[in-house]
Specification:
The chain is of the alpha/beta class. It has 13 helices and 11 strands. The strands form 3 sheets. Strands 2-3-4-1-5-6-7 form a 7-stranded mixed beta sheet, with helices on both faces. It has a two-stranded antiparallel sheet with strand order 8-9. The longest helix has 23 residues. The chain binds guanosine-5'-diphosphate and magnesium ion.
Length: 378
């Protein structure tokens, strides 16, 4: 089997698209009076500006949904929440029905996975008695379906006030998962005094802890607030790919036969890309593949790895009778995955543009990174 970096990159792109298409849909209900900062929160946490796509699609009288094609997230918003007691009551019944119907469908794509109840720190001393009553009955009724609920204290500035409010709300002992103070965007208080945004990474970590495994890739794909959460998931993908393909590492892998190693690596790179939720170009992937496991146009495995890489890194393993050990194959795959994560991290942080990698310096950088990871892992 002969693989060229171009072909491999094309295969990667194909798998990335497929992987993203197959991600389960995450469904979040967001509640709270208008002006508390729901839209700002949504747009700061997720990588698509869902809240800007107009008035949304009416789902029921009080519920609107926001989504985008090829984006595995739906936000259910309740725009009339504060207008009257009737509307709040109706909202409650409609949300509970949405939850029940979703659960009854037994379809992960239709279930409601989390509820974000937003309270504005800036304009409130605490929440009013009607909201308190609403939350009391809502959380009681939700006890059966057990959809995770976060009370999010929005516009959490000054922070001291946000923390005081957190204590107050926690003392209510609602049946909820967590009270989370956040400031979704920097807040300018004075011309020379700006309070930095905070709390969104914590919110994502909490989401990570409550969502089931079949929504973890989705969460990481759609969120942009926590690079750490993305990296953690990506590291887990690398470890799982290696274990699945090479087990404990004692079984020899025929290095001239790329049929085992290469598909494992392609799938791994595709899964990592989906978790980062970035549009990675085919030329970047071609560069990456050619600068790591295969030198331009040659067979990826076999000769390349054995005569170049293993020689470069003494002690990493040797080729015996046409095979490398599963452990060595695992090591190479791990280093490949970790180098790729590092590159996506640099792009995510804006430290490097994708095009910059398609230069001699860029390629050297990739290669050095891969070798560095190999040395680290051995
Ligand atoms: N600086 C800053 N302004 C915010 C924040 N959250 C909301 N706002 C402002 O508060 C106003 C109402 O926010 P919006 O998201 O539209 O509230 P919604 O009605 O609940 O969707 C807007 O002018 C926002 O710019 C925040 O975290 N930081
Ligand atoms: Mg809004």
């Amino acid at each position: 089997m002969e693989y060229h970096p171009e072909q491999l990159a094309a295969k990667c792109i194909q798998e990335i698209n497929q992987k993203i298409r197959n991600l389960n849909k995450l469904n979040i209900v967001i509640l709270g009076k208008s002006g508390v900062g729901k839209s700002t929160l949504i747009n700061s946490v997720f990588r698509e500006n869902l809240a800007e796509t107009g008035i949304g699609r009416p789902v029921t009288q009080e519920i609107r949904s926001y989504t985008k094609p090829d984006f595995p997230l739906t936000i259910y918003d309740t725009p009339g929440f504060e207008l009257s007691k009737e509307q709040q009551d109706r909202t409650k019944q409609e949300v509970l029905k949405l939850i029940r119907d979703g659960a009854a469908s037994e379809d992960v794509n239709k279930a409601i996975h989390c509820i974000w109840y937003c309270i504005n720190v800036g304009s409130n001393r605490t929440f009013d008695s009607f909201e308190e009553e609403w939350l009391r009955t809502f959380t009681e009724e939700n006890k059966i379906t057990r959809v995770p609920i976060f009370i999010i204290l929005t516009q959490g500035c000054p922070k001291k006030k946000a923390l005081e409010m957190q204590k107050l709300v926690e003392a209510e002992n609602f049946h909820i998962n967590k009270v989370v103070p956040v400031l979704a965007q920097d807040m300018e208080l004075d011309e020379d005094y700006t309070v930095k945004a905070y709390g969104l990474d914590t919110l994502i970590e909490l989401m990570t802890s409550v969502l089931p495994d079949d929504l973890q890739d989705t969460l990481q794909n759609v969120q942009k607030a926590s690079l750490e959460a993305k990296k953690k998931r990506a590291h887990a993908i690398v470890a799982a790919s290696v274990t699945a393909a090479f087990g404990e590492g004692f079984v020899p892998v025929p290095f001239a036969d790329a049929s085992m190693l290469v598909p494992t690596q392609v799938t791994m790179l595709a899964s990592i890309t989906a978790v980062f939720g970035m549009n990675i170009s085919k030329s970047l992937l071609t560069c990456f593949v050619s600068s790591t496991i295969g030198a331009g146009g040659a067979t990826i495995l076999g000769r390349t790895i054995v005569s170049n890489l293993l020689k470069l890194i003494p002690g990493v393993g040797t080729a015996v009778g046409g095979t490398i050990s599963g452990a060595t194959a695992g090591l190479l795959t791990t280093a490949l995955g970790e180098a790729y994560i590092k590159i996506l991290e640099m792009i995510f942080k804006g430290e490097m543009r994708q095009e910059e990698l398609d230069t001699p310096e860029g390629k050297k950088k990739i290669k050095d990174l891969f070798l560095e990871m190999l040395k680290k892992k051995k």
